[in-house]
Structure formats: structure tokens, C-alpha cells
Amino acid sequence: MIEARVLVTDRVTPLTVAGRTMHQIGLPYHWGPTGYSTGDAANELTSISLDPNTHIQESKAFACDIRSGRRPRGPGRAALLREYQRRAGITDQTGMEI
């Protein structure tokens, strides 16, 4: 989960995939807290895995959930993470392997 400022624009046209409208977002990568920009890194959203054919990390395309406002802190953050885990079907028994 990362927090970022956004710019909403109509310059990027939504895609229609299997009859469903999918909006595209862009996140710049940066160098973490020691680079030119600071804050959360887009890299934190991706898994650490490689495409089996090209060995390129799986960060070119993935789904995400965008929420307005600041991300919760303290107990609210843990509750939000549990809700995302529930929605994804992740339990102590399944781990991340679904």
C-alpha cells in the first residue's frame, strides 16, 4: 500500500477488456528516500517475481485499488490490510499462493 498525490486527467483513454472498462494509471519509479524525489515507491506494489521467458519483473501491468484521502495509520491500517486480504481470499492457510 502506498500513498501518492494524483493528477486526474482525460489524456489517457480507458480500455475495454471483456466488456469491462479499465482505467489506466501511471506511477513514476524513483530511487527511494535518497533520490531526487522522496516518499513511497511504486516498486512496493509489485511482487518479487520474474516473467519466465524474459526475466523482466512483473511491474509493467497489474491491477490496483485507488482510494481517496490519506491512508489509515495505526489500527486503521491493519484493518484495511485485513480487508484487502479477505477480498483476495488470503488466509493463514493459503498464504499468498492462490
From TrEMBL:
Entry protein name: Uncharacterized protein
InterPro entries assigned: Asp_de-COase-like_dom_sf
Species classification: Bacteria, Bacillati, Actinomycetota, Actinomycetes, Micromonosporales
Top-rank taxon, per record: Bacteria
Naturally occurring in which organism (per UniProt): Actinocatenispora thailandica
